[in-house]
Amino acid sequence: MTAGGTDVSEALAQIAAAIPDRSDLFEKWRTEIADDQIYGLPTGTSAAIQNALLHAASLGLLDAETAEGLAADLNCKPLANRPDISKFDPRDDAFWSLPMAVAWIMSRDWKKVAQQKSDYRAAREDWYCESNVGLPKGGRLNGYIIAASWQIRNLRPAAIDRLLLGDSFDTAQSDHRASAMTAIEAKRALWGALQEQRLIASGRQDDARKPIPAFLWQDLLPFQDGIDSLE
Question: What pTM was estimated for this model as a whole?
């Protein structure tokens, strides 16, 4: 059987050869991949190869970079979905969320704004690594200990607090551009514009969109992406 021109059995052998670990976790991976094929999961398409790569990464047998490299070598699409940012262009949107507005003030870059959109973040996937993950084996809860389990997840919902955390990371790494406005500065500028009614905000209450009076911005704090939007 083939997947994108690559024989599935040959692909699995190539994946196995790339795994340096020959511990019980490797045997677990081989057994479970074989069971997947026996019990009807795709074996004649690239899905079989992708499943094998994702499972090996989750067991810590491959890191994210190696898994993605093997996917490309084996004629599979990328394992983590990276959607075309141009399909999420926010410039004609009627409403922007607070994180979108802060991203614009920080960067004046519509692509940075698009990265804060809910639909983009629901479509975009990234690799995450969890350390010391335990799996059951032989009746023991933590019979297997995975030092580094790589898994793909969607981005978390946009939030101003996450942009502020980015400030902290940039400061710690000395990586913040001198010409860029920080998230703290951008949030302060946004709140000032809302308080002075240079921007008008609305929010949902009782299933209806209502304007937020300017004086309330003295005390309002952002809560969650999609709750407060700029109009």
Answer: 0.78
